[in-house]
Design goal:
Length: about 475
Amino acid sequence: MIFTFKFSNTLYKTLAIIFCIGFSKILYGQSVIQPGLNDLSFFKKSSKTWQIVGSVQADLNKANTLYFTKGSGVLLNLPDKKQKGEDLYSITDHGDLDLEIEYLMATESNSGIYLQGRYEIQLLDSWGATAIRSGSNGGIYERWNESKPNGQKGYMGYAPRQNASRAPGLWQKLKISFQAPRFDSNGKKTANAVMLKVELNGVLIHDNVELSGPTRGAMAESEVTAGPLRIQGDHGAVAFRNMKISRFDGGRPAEAVATNVNTVNPIHIEPTENYILRSFMDMPGSPRVVHAVSVGSPGKVHYTYDMDNAAIIQVWRGGFLNATPMWHDRGDGSSRPLGMVQRFGKPVQTLSRLTNDQTAWSTDTSGTGYRPKGYVLDAEGRPTFNYLIYGITVMMLLSYWKRDRESTGRLVFQKALQVCISGWPRQQVLLKYPRVFISWMINRISYALKIRTVQRPLYEIKMAERN
């Protein structure tokens, strides 16, 4: 008996793609390494400041301070005055490389990742910085020539496209695609090393940046086909986790360049003053927010408010909004944040009447008598959102204020939610944000409060910005 099978063209194409991908990995010697960080065996022996721990936590008010719990999965470096720390080198060398890694900075801390031990991507507590340089978080550090006059020694450094940094104490994700320099059979360099792509917290900060030579602090000025992965360890407290290394031992395969046949000039909104835009907003893993109000500021810290739930659903820094999906051609009514976004999960109402702080939070506004009442702008163009819930009038303002100058001479700005509630009934209400809990008894016509935090400082809502 003979069976005849027929396959669609789509299936043939799919099988061909799978075969080509698999064949190219074999041909180009691609290997993937994910150090479990159960010990330090992936690295050469270094100083005792490096250790494996279970978790870390920063203190926003103390420089170079990280607290940790015992365990595994996190690589921690804690240098101090007695032990200044040393750089950490991988045992194996690499040429072309894709690296994914998460890191957490202590306040005012400094570190770096050197590809082949020679080309540095800077890691720095750059939260709140407005002047972005090659030495900022995510920057490609400058090269150095000691023979030049002062002020001219550093050259050919590359600042990130925008400040996509998170606050100290928050995990940040870095993705690097690196192409090693090329040499002919006589050892003469024929092509420079290239940072093909660098993403920080989901934001593209470098694209196809050619490196004419090693950056400052390189392990050697000579360039090679392969060198170790190196982590700077003598500048400050820092932690790492979830490392994934993809090596291309035979050289990176040529990547197809996608052609956009429908090229459109992007429509980006960059406010020079406080700015409000209403649109749809798509949230990963959640339904589209159809009554979203995005509030932009010239300080480049922005947020989106959900009118249906009276809740702030995301905060981000960097660029404000990409309005191309909404304003180009017929559009779909949506806009997208341009910078590093901190989302707060599925939108739920901000206020809920609970028996105690262990009561399950309401998932919608049913039975609350919720009625949005729009917003009012103050003299600086900042909105105060108004609504009714449980018979209470709520006014919500996200504001900024200055603190005194610290000993470092830098101005510190904080932002926190201020809520004013008007209502006569005596009842208990609980306000909740991620890791923020406030309860109070309403027993006056008006009651004002400030957010306090439990557990640890909440950088998503109460964020410190340092200039």
